Amino acid sequence: MKKLFRLFLKPIVVLAICALANVSNAADKIPVLASFSILGDLVRVVGADRVTVSVLVGPDEDAHVFEPKPSDAKNILQAQLLVTNGLGFEHWAQKLIKSSGYKGLVVVASQGVMAQNMPTEKGDSVETDPHAWQDPSNVAIYVRNIAAALSKLDPAGARIYQLNSEVYTNELKALDADAKIQISLIPVAKRKVITSHDAFGYFGAHYGIKFLAPQGISTNIEPSAKQIAQLIQQIQMEKIKAIFFENMSSSKLLSQLSKDVGVTVGPELYVDALSKADGPATSYLKLMRYNVTQLVAGMKKN
């Protein structure tokens, strides 16, 4: 009887030990808060099972018009690391950090990126383009910065973070090489695209594509009637048929624009945010592959 009891008890003890280990592991994970969904994906790639990741601006949401809520201040206080893009993308970040009283580590993922400037809406000055992740070579810098920050908080995992960032960098290089091959098949004269707002500056410079947009760098600034009229004239003159709107922007403006020039709008692109779980862009790598495929198909129509 005692032997049967011991045999019965043994698997229960093992299960209990495993359960305690899982609780311990969960407690040991570094809580990280990323400013928006694309950064959240990069943190998950680098941190793997040593981190728990949450984001302030989720999939299909627009960081340009994001307004922090009281619950966001609570979330930031629960994190040991806050990851931001920088380059003026999160205009609300410093105010949120200050108002919440957050004292943890902050890493600017774009630190070290060669920033690009673009003309302002009035055209009398320039402003920094924050969309540096649209160039995969910049994302390699992002993951190195994230790995360094995690290593500072968790020295025991430093080698893991370094290896994860190196593996991912190789994936970025493969993605980049494939994108260049696809785009090289499009004649230079046809590499012209219309999008909702100026989010493709780094992408265009890296791959040799001319992007035009009715809105500027930020989606919270409506274009003037004059700017739209000038864009329509350019579309007609250059015979541009590759027109796309973005997942986190209203399609109303581009839909009206395509109607005015008689061109069908292509599938939505994923620019400042990942797609939801049932979409085609649930990670940065998927986002880039999807966008390249759609852009190439659109440019072939020009």
Core attributes:
single chain, 302 residues, alpha/beta, Rossmann fold, 2 domains, four-stranded parallel sheet, two-stranded antiparallel sheet, disordered N terminus, transport
Task: Walk me through the structure.
With about 300 residues, this protein is α/β, with parallel strands linked by helices. The chain has two domains: about 30-175, Rossmann fold (3-Layer(aba) Sandwich), CATH 3.40.50; about 185-300, Rossmann fold (3-Layer(aba) Sandwich). About 50% of the residues lie in helices and about 10% in strands. It has ten helices and eight strands. It has helices at about 1-30, 35-45, 70-75, 95-100, 135-155, 160-185, 200-205, 225-240, 250-260, 285-300; strands spanning about 30-35, 50-55, 80-85, 105-110, 115-120, 125-130, 190-195, 210. The longest helix is centred in the first third of the chain and has 27 residues, at about 1-30. It is globular and about 60 Å long. This is Zn-binding component of ABC-type Zn uptake system, ZnuA. It comes from Polaromonas sp. E5S. One of its GO terms (biological process) is metal ion transport. Pfam families: ZnuA.
